[in-house]
Each structure stands twice: as structure tokens, then as C-alpha cells.
Design goal:
The chain has ten helices and no strands. It is mainly alpha-helical and about 220 residues long. The longest helix has about 40 residues. The radius of gyration is 22 Å and the shape is globular.
């Protein structure tokens, strides 16, 4: 019996590997599409009031399709938030990179925080909902901690650049800086959702003030 040709065997393995990768990529793309579709429903109703069936009823996808691509609501929600946060954590990168003065950085950062509060409130509410749920749902905790760390690094890049532009040193640690601005943002979000539109301007003013206090 003739032995298999070595080159043919390598080619077969390579082709199977390529097909396998395509399947994985297609599966990931489909999950991303479903997550985008589910985000709006999750943001409107919150974790506790949303089921996979509810999400299916508010999208063009069936309940069975959602179950095929996601193990459960926890899997879907964490994927949604991760997908959204992947964009969010780069929100201030351009501001940091292009700032030519401390005053410009401060003004642009405060304006950007105010803008995202006004235009993306439901999505931010979903993040805080997930973070609160992680206090009770251990299955959320690793994801929440990872996202929280990335958000902290995002804020710290602004503080570090501000210190550099002012020729000073940070007067706070990364966790304290993050807690400060995250706290201001969450408070502003709560007020805005309660119908207090002035919360956006208040946030912008508070960010301007607090960024100046992060250096010494």
C-alpha cells in the first residue's frame, strides 16, 4: 500500500484549519450582530426585567437563535457590555493625544464626558446595572472587574497627561482618580434619568474643577 503523500497531507490539514477558523470567525460575527441588536432592549429594560425571549420579541432574531449563540442571559449581557465598552474605553484617546495645553485637555475632557452623558445615557445605565448585579451574581464579577480596570486606565491616561502638560505630578492614585470621575458621572446619570437636564452642565463644571485637583 502506498504511503500518503506528505504534501497532500499538509494541504488537507491546512485546509481543515482554514475552514475551522472561518467557522469560528462567522460564529463570532454572528454573536456580535446579536449583541448589537440586544443592546437597545437591555439598555431600556435593564437586567432584571429582560429575558432572552423579551430580547427576541424586540429584534428580528428568534428565541432559538439567541439560545444557539448564547448560553443564557448572563452570557449575552456580558458580551453586549464588553462589546460596547471596547469602544467606550478609547473615547478619550484622541483628546489625550491631540491636547496641546492643559486648558484644552481639561475643556475637551469635560465636554466629552458631558456629551456622552447626554447622548448615551441608556448604555451607561446598562453598565452600572451590570456592575451592581455583580455584587450578587458571581458569574459577572470577573468581567466587571476587567472592564472596570480598563475604565480606570482610560481615566488615568487623562490625569497623567494633564499632569504632564501642567508640569506637575498627580496628587491622587489611579483608583482615586477613577472613583472621583466615575462617581461624578454616575451621580449625573441618576439626575438626568430623573428628568434633571441641568445635570449635564453640572457634570461638565464638576469635571473641570476636579481635574485641576488631581495634580500638585
Amino acid at each position: 500500500m502506498a504511503e500518503p503523500d506528505g504534501k497532500s497531507h499538509v494541504t488537507d490539514v491546512t485546509e481543515r484549519s482554514r475552514i475551522s477558523r472561518r467557522k469560528v470567525d462567522k460564529f463570532a460575527e454572528r454573536r456580535a450582530q446579536l449583541a448589537d441588536s440586544a443592546l437597545q432592549t437591555l439598555a431600556e429594560l435593564g437586567y432584571a426585567r429582560t429575558s432572552l425571549r423579551e430580547i427576541a420579541q424586540n429584534s428580528e432574531f428568534s428565541h432559538g437563535v439567541l439560545h444557539y449563540y448564547f448560553n443564557d442571559k448572563v452570557d449575552l449581557l456580558t458580551h453586549c457590555v464588553r462589546q460596547y465598552e471596547a469602544v467606550c474605553v478609547t473615547r478619550y484617546d484622541e483628546i489625550v493625544a491631540t491636547a496641546e495645553s492643559a486648558s484644552q485637555l481639561c475643556t475637551d475632557f469635560a465636554a466629552a464626558m458631558a456629551r456622552t452623558l447626554r447622548t448615551e445615557a441608556p448604555m451607561h445605565r446598562l453598565w452600572y446595572d451590570l456592575r451592581n448585579q455583580s455584587l450578587f451574581e458571581s458569574s459577572f464579577q470577573a468581567d466587571v472587574l476587567e472592564i472596570d480596570q480598563r475604565r480606570q486606565e482610560m481615566i488615568w491616561s487623562v490625569v497623567a497627561r494633564y499632569a504632564e502638560l501642567t508640569g506637575t505630578s498627580p496628587a491622587v492614585t489611579p483608583p482615586v482618580a477613577y472613583a472621583t470621575f466615575d462617581g461624578l458621572f454616575q451621580q449625573g446619570l441618576l439626575k438626568l434619568l430623573a428628568g434633571q437636564d441641568h445635570a449635564v452642565d453640572e457634570l461638565e463644571t464638576a469635571v473641570l474643577r476636579e481635574l485641576a485637583r488631581t495634580v500638585t
